[in-house]
Design brief:
Chain lengths: 405, 238, 444
């Protein structure tokens, strides 16, 4: 078989338009494919990163007191006692916020009182069952003790802090690089101090969209009396929905001075938080699939057209001794030349689009692995799409050359 | 009718210039039947394309029915083709997805004739070539001779001043060839000027005048005696 | 001639049904993806009160940490203000209308037959309804005198009134809000500005609050903002009074300034206040007082998210791909049929007539593609709507509301579809028209 590119190239250059159109399609397809794949993988990693939380077995109850008689501390104690006594419940805690929900509190935390404060750190109120409820693993230190749990903040001590906190490993590393954070002192926004007594890992806090979603610290305190309380309840696998129903019926009637706003699985809040990411993922996957299909179609159509307009020529080649394989490789090489030209242009386009996205939309710069993958993919589908027309060309009988009409 | 003087047509590529017609002059009077003969590559088809206003020429002058056609717009040339010229090709060139009737209708459509007018002309043209009963057949359902007769009907339906025929019998067997030639003679007798391009001296002999082309130039004129009427021709067609 | 060309086009589709279907599909998918993204983009980028864009201004001032801007990326001041700053600026008589407000939550009980429920409640001054042109179904809002001292009156949203009173005129009735008596003085008509420009906290496309109470109740009942509450200064915060005196930001101030003169006067009023406060030791950062009109406010708060912009870019790249693909297919198809065009030219068709014939054929494809594309887009939007609605557990309000065509959107979509495809068909039509007919006549 002779791989003679020059005559193929010169044939191409004489009949340009179709080839140019296909090359442009390949270029656009490459640029879209590479950047879309990059974004898809990022979102996928974000959605599927470990949260440390037993997401599928936790549900959330939101309770809001509204009368003057209502007493937050007493209500929380009573509700927790009830929830913890339910069969199928592993642990329950009261908190100010819902993990992974996109809502919650931030505080600033520094290691010296005079230090410059940079940014916010997510904090969450829990009690001694909090870590168990979430399913978080302590990698150093200890859990909160029952007697350490502080009473709720009231309207007359809004800025009270706590003596002990538990931090995520990532936050510990941020505050005390290359040191164990255990036993160290930190200062809150009002320069109250607390000691780090435990470290958990992994954990994603209340704000999955934050660039530092894994900077979290836990406060041993009952939730403020002027906000709603969220009870987090963890059940044995498979029991969640049944326990939810039982708890909702009871809690809705147990105390006339408060309302139960909802009882919902934690997965509801997680899904809602990631809705933008997951719909972006689905959308990009769909469009990428269509891009590949349309490009295949374009390549296939051009190859078919080229074969059908050159039947005579193919017959002549066969008549002068070309084997079927020679004809197949002629069309595959022609296709490879066109695809390669498109890929060359496409690389430029892809990098330009990647750069533009990184500058304007704060996406990380395009990884070159993706470009390599995209190039190979397009090359592959180019050859695949041209395969059938090339086989058809090879089936042209040599006698075509001598036919007049 | 048709008057060409010193017409030249050059095909250029990057490397060479080829004269397809070289200072070609010819006059054809109304009602004539002229055969253009010559070997392959002598410029027969180029002459036909230039005469039929399908191609421009590079120098010289060309008057069609007293009008200079040089430099006419595409619209004007198209209109002249449509109204004054009929084409007949070696490979018939019927439009394969249109049936016989619709094929004959094509030039009438471009002339924007009314539906009734079109129907009448198509009817009489098909009548003349003896295919009125095949109006709703597709070209593929017809024999070569029938297809060429449809093409002739299409060429004359618009009542052109002259017909340009390019090897009209080239793809036909001898019986069908004779039928087609009889038909062309009949049309000529009805007053239509005919230019017949062929390399077949047998056919050329049936014309009143022969123009022999070599290398884009006329090498020989030969006028024949007015031919005798061929009895029975009409009968064959019918 | 049009009818003739149309008939020829249909015949031509019959000859190559496969390639025609592929072209229609390519156009349809390109259009569908474009229309879907543009529909969402259009909804996101809307300005629901554009006619007052040059009159309504969000007021913001940068009272933040000297060492650390709240928004280092774009140097915007915090989107909310402190109680003391809104309190002072609200005192100005320069604006035609002015609103100080925030959202909180309260439990409504003692009305209708349902159980007590907690609802989103806006604590706002009286001008809210007139300034943001909120329609009333029954009754009306309160006057400025009801703000301070706060009178126990409440306005309900139409939805809340439907829930509590089955849609009856409830004006004059009493309900309990967080266990205090309030008299209903108004029920809103249908009102759902998207985006919720006047308060973007807690979601750009949230539905409006269910209840509205006079601003004075905020201090009276010590109500906090349920969505946003940012502090930076280490300061004593032992009770609500401390909180009101603090540098924490949690309230919004909007003013209506009908002309350039009033804008200038209000700006210099603000600047004067800033300078005076700075002398007293506040506002450690450089002066960054802003009056942002609605469009600017929506831009600053990045209501159209980056994902959506990226998708619009992607959609146009995809449409371009589909159209180039279609051009390729059209060229292949018409060049395959060039002999027929050559015959037509010989029979007297002018270039223009061939061009028109091809363009009409393309137009029919374009129309079919556009129609199918719109249908696909409607299907796609319904699917996304369904997905979002499912994630919200059937709650209304929020992103799923963006997944609807509006009339203007459909017209744009159809125009885009036809223009794009005809543009794609133009080149092939021109190419076919230019073909030298003689070449195709000699042999086939």
């Amino acid at each position: 078989m002779t791989l003679n590119v020059r005559p193929i190239l010169s044939a191409l250059l004489r009949n340009r338009t179709g080839a140019v159109l296909v090359a442009i399609q390949v270029a656009i397809a490459l640029a879209v494919l590479v950047n879309a794949a990059y974004i898809i993988v990022q979102r996928f990693e974000k959605i599927h990163r470990p949260t440390g939380i037993d997401e599928s077995n936790i549900f959330v109850v939101e309770s809001a007191g509204f009368t003057a008689r209502f007493h937050q501390g007493a209500s929380v104690r009573e509700d927790l006692a009830y929830l913890r006594g339910l069969p199928g419940v592993i642990a329950a805690t009261a908190s100010n916020a819902i993990p992974l929900s996109g809502g919650g509190n931030n505080d600033s935390l520094v290691t010296r009182p005079e230090a410059t404060r940079t940014g916010y750190i997510n904090d969450m109120e829990i009690d001694e069952q909090g870590l168990d409820t979430l399913g978080l693993k302590l990698i150093a230190g200890r859990n909160f003790r029952h007697e350490e749990i502080q009473p709720p903040l009231t309207k007359s001590d809004i800025s009270r802090f706590v003596p002990e906190i538990i931090v995520s490993r990532a936050l510990g590393q941020h505050l005390f690089p290359n040191e164990s954070p255990l036993g160290k002192q930190v200062f809150d926004a009002q320069n109250h101090t607390a000691t780090i007594v435990g470290v958990v890992d992994p954990v994603i806090g209340n704000f999955p969209d934050s660039p530092h979603a894994d900077w979290v610290f836990f406060l041993p305190r009952m939730p403020d009396e002027f906000i709603v309380v969220r009870y987090l309840v963890r059940t044995t696998p498979g029991e969640r929905d049944a326990v939810m129903r039982t708890a909702e019926t009871h809690l809705a009637q147990s105390n006339p001075d408060r309302v139960i706003n909802y009882v919902r699985p934690l997965s509801y809040f997680k899904n809602l938080s990631y809705l933008g990411d997951s719909s972006m993922e689905i959308y990009l996957l769909t469009v990428t699939g269509l891009v590949i299909a349309i490009t295949c179609l374009g390549i296939f159509a051009l190859a078919t057209f080229n074969v059908s307009t050159r039947t005579r020529q193919i017959g002549t080649r066969r008549a002068v001794g070309a084997r079927r394989g020679d004809i197949v490789s002629y069309f595959l090489i022609e296709n490879a030349l066109i695809t390669s030209a498109g890929i060359l242009l496409g690389c430029t386009l892809a990098l330009a689009a990647g750069y533009w996205l990184s500058v304007h939309y704060a996406l990380p710069r395009l990884d070159l692995y993706y470009l390599t993958g995209g190039v190979l993919t397009l090359w592959g589908i180019g050859q695949l799409a041209a395969w059938q027309p090339a086989r058809r060309a090879a089936a042209v009988p040599p006698s075509v050359a001598t036919r007049t009409v | 009718m048709l008057k060409m003087h010193d017409v030249s047509k050059i095909y250029r590529t990057e490397l060479i210039e080829t004269y397809a017609l070289r200072r070609f002059s010819l006059e054809v009077a109304a009602g004539e039947f002229v055969a253009i003969t010559g070997p392959s590559g002598s410029g027969k088809t180029t002459f036909l394309n230039v005469a039929g206003l399908l191609e421009e020429f590079d120098s010289g002058s060309y008057q069609l029915e007293g009008h200079d056609v040089r430099g006419l717009s595409d619209d004007a040339r198209s209109r002249l083709r449509n109204e004054r010229i009929g084409f007949i090709f070696q490979s018939f060139n019927l439009i394969p997805d249109l049936d016989v009737y619709d094929n004959v209708e094509v030039p009438l459509r471009y002339r924007r004739l009314s539906g009734a007018d079109r129907r009448e002309r198509i009817g009489s043209a098909l009548e003349l070539v003896g295919l009125a009963s095949r109006a709703r057949h597709m070209p593929a359902q017809l024999s070569g001779g029938q297809q060429q007769r449809v093409a002739i009907a299409r060429a004359i339906a618009g009542d052109p001043a002259f017909l340009l025929a390019d090897e009209p019998t080239g793809n036909l067997d001898s019986l069908m060839s004779r039928q087609v030639m009889d038909l062309l003679e009949q049309i000529n007798e009805m007053g239509t000027t005919i230019l017949l391009v062929t390399h077949d001296p047998e056919l050329a002999r049936r014309a009143q005048r022969n123009v022999h082309l070599v290398d884009g130039q006329i090498s020989d004129f030969r006028a024949y005696e007015p031919r005798a009427a061929t009895p029975g021709a009409a009968g064959v067609i019918a | 001639m049009f009818g003739y060309y149309l008939r020829l086009a249909l015949k031509s589709f019959g000859r190559n049904p496969g390639i025609s279907v592929l072209m229609v599909l390519a156009i349809a998918f390109g259009i569908a993806v474009c229309v879907m993204t543009l529909t969402v983009y259009h909804a996101m980028s809307g300005n629901p009160i554009w006619w007052k864009n040059e009159r309504l201004y969000a007021v913001t001032m940068d009272n933040w940490d000297p060492n650390h801007a709240l928004n280092p990326r774009n140097n915007l001041p915090p989107p909310e203000m402190t109680y003391k700053d809104t309190h002072f600026l609200y005192g100005s008589n320069i604006p035609l209308r002015k609103v100080v407000m925030y959202s909180t939550e309260g439990v409504i009980s003692g009305a209708g037959s349902g159980p007590p429920t907690q609802v989103a409640t806006r604590v706002t001054s009286a001008d809210f309804f007139a300034m943001f042109e909120v329609p009333f179904l029954y009754g009306n809002g309160w006057s400025r005198t009801a703000d301070q001292p706060a009178q126990p009156v409440v306005v309900l949203s139409r939805k809340e009134n439907d829930k509590l009173f089955g849609g009856a005129n409830s004006v004059g009735r009493t309900l309990r809000w967080n266990d205090h008596d309030f008299r209903i003085i108004g029920v809103l008509g249908d009102w759902f500005p998207r985006p919720r420009y006047y308060d973007l906290n807690g979601g750009n496309f949230q539905e409006p609050d269910a209840a509205y109470i006079p601003y004075g109740w905020g201090a009276e009942l010590e109500l906090q903002n349920k969505e946003e509450n940012d502090c930076w200064r280490p300061e004593k915060l032992d009770n609500f009074r401390d909180y009101l005196a603090s540098d924490c930001v949690w309230q919004q101030l909007w003013v209506e300034l009908p002309d350039a003169a009033s804008r200038e006067r209000f700006r210099s009023f603000m600047d004067g206040y800033w300078a005076e406060q700075r002398r007293a030791g506040r506002f450690p950062r450089p002066q960054n007082n802003r009056l942002s009109n609605v469009a600017q406010w929506l831009r600053d708060n990045e209501v159209v998210d980056n994902d959506n912009r990226v998708l619009v870019g992607l959609a146009f790249a995809f449409l371009a791909l589909c159209l180039i693909n279609t051009v390729g297919l059209l060229l292949a198809k018409f060049l395959n049929g060039a002999a027929v065009s050559g015959i037509r030219r010989a029979l007297g068709a002018s270039r223009r007539q061939i061009f028109a014939q091809v363009l009409i054929e393309v137009g029919v494809l374009a129309a079919a593609g556009a129609l199918l594309g719109l249908a696909l887009a409607a299907l796609g939007l319904a699917a996304v709507h369904h997905m979002y609605a499912a994630a919200h557990l059937g709650q209304r309000g929020g992103y799923q509301e963006l997944m609807h065509f509006d009339a203007v959107g459909v017209i744009w979509a159809v125009a885009l579809a036809l223009a794009a495809t005809l543009a794609a068909g133009f080149y092939p039509a021109w190419r076919i028209g230019r073909l030298a007919p003689a070449v195709y006549l000699k042999s086939q």
